[in-house]
Amino acid sequence: MKLHRLFSAVLQLHKHTFGAQIARFKPVRLFSISTQVNMRLVQFRKQCGGSVSVGAEVSKDGDVVDLCEGDSKIPGDMKSFLEGGIDVLYAAKQVISTGQHILKRDTISLLAPINNCDKVICIGMNYREHCIEQKFPIPTEPIFFNKFASTIIASGDDIIYPEVTTALDWEVELVIVIGKGGKNIKESEAMDHVIGYTVAHDVSARDWQMKRNGGQWLIGKTMDTFCPLGPAIVTKDELSDPHNLGIRCRVNGVTMQNSNTNQLIFNTMKTIEFLSRLVTLRAGDIILTGTPSGVGVFRKPEPVYLKRGDVVECEIDEIGTISNKVV
């Protein structure tokens, strides 16, 4: 009994001395540049109905593993999935490894890979040739604007041609998807905050962007359906090099933009370092990294704009293609 009382006294002393420090400790969920998850993440809905689910493509544009069906603890929307951190990613890998819960592609409706993000951030003038085609000086620091999350639609959804514009234009863009939030992130640590990449079409009403409403960019960039996104969030370790991928845009099958992400002025790391000094990044935030030359407004001898009935395809090598009709 004396030994028991002595042990109890030591335990109480330990709690009193170190309890506050222990209470303050919380495990940190980290994405690491060395973490290998190798997934192509999607959001989908079964065609027979039901709730939104998170899945992983078996292969590019292939069948889809229903991660939520395989593990009920995996969140059913992408934002919550990413907020779950590395624990959820490893749970997803476990489901994939079973080889079960695979749905045929034609039995699901693919949604935008994320649609309820806290921030949709965009970089302007981030390809040298795009600056040159409009006689704009090469920026010495990133130029940021934003869209609203309500602009996001999936590949296959219609782009609504607003009655208020007569100058609808195309822009293909590589998208950074934030996996772990942060503030004042160092360039050397930036990739630890990135889960992967996807493709966006930054639809733009050039009259509203450049001439009307004071010439500021927001209104001309954030009308309904102005951010087709997808088809998947491809994790960074699944890509050979996100800064050396072919990027192109086709309108009705004709190539209008054709470049490479190695032409970016500010890469992922520099972008995150600069931006996180100004705003706090959160899991699920997306950053559209700018578009190369070949947009309609700067075509010679005169501008070329989208019209109802046009089909726009935005493609980035190793990530995929999104296709949307203007109606």
Q: Could you characterize what this model shows?
A:
- The protein has 327 residues and is an alpha+beta fold.
- The chain is 21% helix and 27% strand.
- It contains 8 helices and 18 strands.
- The strands form 3 sheets. Strands 1, 2, 3, 4, 5, 6, 7, 8, 10, 11, 13 and 16 form a 12-stranded mixed beta sheet that branches. It has a 4-stranded antiparallel beta sheet with strand order 15-14-17-18, with no helix packed on it.
- Residues 1-34 have low confidence and may be disordered.
Number of helices: 8
The main sheet comes to: 12 strands, mixed
What share of the residues does DSSP label as strand, in percent? Answer: 25-35%
Instruction: Provide the residue-averaged pLDDT.
Output: 90
Whole-angstrom Rg: 23 Å
Class by alpha and beta content: alpha+beta
Residues in helices, as a percent range: 10-25%
Shape: globular
Q: Give the termini distance in whole angstroms.
A: 83 Å
